[in-house]
Amino acid sequence: MQRRHPIALLATLMFVVSAPAFAWSGFGHQLVGELAERQLSESARAQIADLLRDEPEQTLASVATWPDTVRKQAAWKFTAPFHYVYIQDDACRYDAARDCPDGSCIVAAIDRYGAELRDATLPREQRAQALKFVVHFVGDVHQPLHAGNRTDEGGNEFQVNLDGEGTNLHSVWDYRILHSAQLDLQTYADRLDAQRRRAPGLANGDSAAWAMESCSALAAQAAYPAKPGKLDPSYLVDKRGYVEQRVVQASERLAAMLERALGVGAGP
């Protein structure tokens, strides 16, 4: 086995340690949570704070990464397939019986945990867990490589080289694109919130529609390079605007979903 120079090894270790802080499953999810909470009514925010009263922080951003932290634990391994869906159709048409057998995909998970969150007769702890899953999965389904129609494990098997580092396309979309803006959470959230206020979207559709949007974006946004290999750094800048758009859309749709479940007049 070839030995690596100590400096090169140190750089690699630093990258491995620091990268998750900027992952869609970290930084991106926190952005979605922060933006969504800014759009909620006082009533919905109060109920969220009550549901999360046992947490160190009672905000959507603070719990947005929880499903990723527990998915490898024995008690939560059953949730691993809930983070994605493989749509087995070239035109990105989702079919529940074909693409989500036994409800084991992100589309069904959003609906299932959304129903638990709405049900005020359930124990608070169960609804708090449902809230954390909803926040996370609504973010995931807006990341195109979490809802694609290619047989490469959501781009995990599509190898690329970026800035001299070997990685894969899924990782690029998970964290490299947002990280390339080099902004902290609050600064980035302020910027995207200002964009949203200037051109508010429609919090429309459902979990299946959001998944089909993501799937269609793989072709529409030319997410896949022509072939594996060296990826020009300009790719990050080229795709960042669309990724930011998906973060904003996720936040609007999450806020609307939570408002229906927890806002003024919400019921079981």
3D structure, described in words:
The chain has twelve helices and three strands; from the N terminus they run ααααααααββαααβα. β1 and β2 form a beta hairpin. The N and C termini lie far apart (60 Å). It is mainly alpha-helical. The longest helix is centred in the last third of the chain and has 29 residues. One of its GO terms (biological process) is DNA catabolic process. Keywords: Disulfide bond, Endonuclease, Glycoprotein, Hydrolase, Metal-binding, Nuclease, Signal. InterPro entries: PLipase_C/P1_nuclease_dom_sf (IPR008947), S1/P1nuclease (IPR003154). Pfam families: S1-P1_nuclease.
Radius of gyration: 19 Å
Q: Give the uncertain stretches in residue-range form.
A: 1-24
The share of residues in extended strands comes to under 5%
Question: Would you tell me which CATH topology applies?
Answer: P1 Nuclease
Organism: Chiayiivirga flava
Signal peptide: 1-23
Keywords: Disulfide bond, Endonuclease, Glycoprotein, Hydrolase, Metal-binding, Nuclease, Signal
Pfam families: S1-P1_nuclease (PF02265)
Essential attributes:
4% strand; 12 helices; signal; 268 residues; endonuclease activity; mainly alpha; disordered N terminus; globular; endonuclease; hydrolase activity, acting on ester bonds; P1 Nuclease; Endonuclease
Show the helix and strand layout.
Elements: H1 6-18, H2 24-38, H3 42-51, H4 60-63, H5 66-70, H6 96-99, H7 106-118, H8 124-141, E1 159-162, E2 165-168, H9 169-179, H10 185-198, H11 207-220, E3 229-230, H12 234-262
In short:
The chain has twelve helices and three strands. The longest helix is centred in the last third of the chain and has 29 residues. Pfam families: S1-P1_nuclease.
